[in-house]
Prior knowledge:
Order of helices and strands: EEEEEEEHHEE
Radius of gyration: 29 Å
Number of strands: 9
Largest sheet: 5 strands, mixed
Strand order of the largest sheet: 2-9-8-4-6
Strand content: 35-45%
Amino acid sequence: MTETIITPTVSGAVTPGTLTLTAGQTGTLLLTLTPKGDYAGTVTFSCGQLPAHVSCTFAPKSLTIAAGSGPVTDTLTIDTGAKTSAMLHKPMASQRWETTVALTLWLPASLLGFFGVRRKRRRLPRLLAACVLACCLGMLSGLTGCGSAPSTAKAGTYSIPITLTLTGGMTQSITATVVVQ
C-alpha cells in the first residue's frame, strides 16, 4: 500500500504574462490562485524589492479561500511613476508657520543687534541691511521646503517579485514581468 501525503497549498499565476507600460503610467495584472490539496485559509500578498519609482498595490491585500472552492482572483496595480524619498520623517503636529518665521528671523536679528551696537552709534549701511534681508529671505525659502517633479521608472524590463503568505506562515513566490518604455 502506498500513501501519498499532499500538503494543502495554492498555485499562483499572473496574467497577462508581461505588462507593458509607458514610464509614469499605471497598469493592472490579475493574480489567479488555485487551491491545491483542499487548502482553506487566508492568503496575504506583498511585493518584494521594487525598482526605483515603481510601486505595487493589491486590491484586496488578502483573500480567504474556503475549503473545496475553486480558483480566486486578486488585482495587482503597478505604478511606474511612484515618488521616492531619501528620508522619511514624522511631521510635528504642533508646528506652525510662526515657528518657521521666528527661526528664520533669529539669525538675521542677532546680526543686526551685534552690528547695530557700536561705540560710535553709526547706523548700518544700506548694503549691509540689504544683505541681511537677502539672507533672511533665503533662509525662509529654505525652511519652507522644496519640491521637485515626480520621477518615473527608467525604461527596461523588470521582474516584480510577489510573495503569497498562507495561513500558518508558509510562503510562495511568483513573478510578474513589467516592461517600461
